[in-house]
């Protein structure tokens, strides 16, 4: 364990902070608070606090698109034009959602060719009733099923691999990936947390320019780094138990941002971990990759 390193970038009481995404064009970090339906936008160089846009329902993740964001809300995917909320267009409905409940959208991101990938989360977080989808040219297609909590989606720098995790399994899978067609090959177990004696479950992730996979371990109080061949390289502690996702940002993409959660902390836990729910940052040596824009 590498102790320390992380500092509070923005102190917040987020219930379920998630999906940090860096826009190199505007030098802005976007992220969400899933449970409260909030989207945050923050320009670190401005010295100003983040802006916030409130949706009417839970929002699992966001991705960059021209002149706005894609938002995977509980009930479907919408395009939000800047300034956020000035125009909203529904692109696809969530086939697992129903009025008042169902499986909501969760982790997602854009692939190097501009397709938007997004997974769902089982309403009871226990039944493998969720799936992984790909949105291409306005059509949402299921790519994998029998998932409980879709997480850890990332793509290798050489565009040969798609990484994905079903959190309760504590395993990160990788799939041969054809970036030209968006086709996934057969799954193989790439990382098993049990083999490394690591705590928590794999949550959101990002890959740096050397192909290292950085993953938040929800319930594990740390960010873990794996080499492209699946070897554990290092872990970085956080002062709260539930980090949720990482993203590379800053002008040189050498700042690692981490969102966190408070949703599973009672009053005693909140007193013990007063920084939980905040956005954290840490400088890193190897830069990340520019986040693709949805076509």
What about the largest sheet?
Answer: 5 strands, mixed
Which regions are unreliable across 5 or more consecutive residues at pLDDT < 50? none
Distance between the termini: 39 Å
Radius of gyration: 17 Å
List the total number of helices: 2
CATH superfamily caption: TolB, C-terminal domain
Strand proportion, as a percent range, falls in over 45%
Helix content: under 10%
The name of the CATH topology is: Neuraminidase
Which of globular, elongated, flat, extended, rod-shaped describes the shape? Answer: globular
CATH architecture grouping: 6 Propeller
Number of domains: 1
Write a structural description.
There is one protein chain. It contains two helices and 28 strands. A hairpin with a 4-residue loop joins strand 17 (161-166) and strand 18. It has one domain (7-294): Neuraminidase, CATH 2.120.10.30. The strands form seven sheets. A five-stranded mixed sheet has the order 9-8-7-6-28, with no helix packed on it. Strands 16, 17, 18, 19 and 20 form a five-stranded antiparallel sheet that branches. A four-stranded antiparallel sheet has the order 1-27-26-25, with no helix packed on it. The chain is 3% helix and 53% strand. It is mainly beta and 295 residues long. It is globular.
């Amino acid at each position: 364990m590498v102790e320390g390193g992380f500092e509070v970038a923005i102190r917040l009481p987020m219930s379920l902070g998630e999906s940090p995404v860096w826009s190199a064009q505007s030098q802005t970090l976007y992220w969400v608070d899933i449970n409260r339906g909030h989207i945050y936008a923050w320009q670190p160089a401005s010295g100003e606090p983040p802006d916030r846009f409130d949706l009417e329902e839970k929002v699992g993740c966001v991705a960059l698109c021209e002149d706005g964001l894609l938002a995977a809300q509980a009930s479907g995917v919408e395009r939000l034009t800047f300034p956020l909320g000035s125009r909203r267009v529904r692109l696809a409905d969530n086939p697992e959602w129903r009025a008042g409940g169902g499986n909501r959208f969760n982790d997602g991101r854009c692939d190097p060719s501009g397709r938007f990938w997004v997974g769902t989360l089982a309403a009871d977080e226990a039944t493998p009733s969720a799936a992984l989808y790909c949105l291409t040219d306005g059509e949402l297609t299921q790519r994998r099923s029998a998932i409980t909590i879709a997480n850890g989606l990332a793509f290798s720098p050489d565009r040969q691999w798609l990484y994905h995790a079903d959190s309760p399994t504590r395993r990160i899978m990788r799939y041969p990936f054809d970036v030209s067609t968006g086709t996934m090959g057969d799954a193989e177990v790439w990382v098993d947390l049990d083999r490394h004696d690591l705590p928590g479950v794999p949550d959101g992730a990002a890959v740096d320019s050397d192909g290292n996979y950085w993953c938040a371990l929800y319930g594990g109080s740390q960010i873990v780094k794996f080499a492209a061949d699946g070897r554990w390289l290092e872990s970085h502690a956080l002062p709260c138990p539930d980090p949720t996702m990482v993203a590379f940002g800053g002008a040189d993409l050498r700042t690692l941002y981490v969102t966190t959660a408070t949703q599973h902390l009672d009053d005693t836990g909140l007193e013990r971990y007063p920084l939980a729910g905040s956005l954290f940052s840490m400088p890193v040596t190897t830069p990340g990759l520019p986040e693709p824009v949805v076509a």
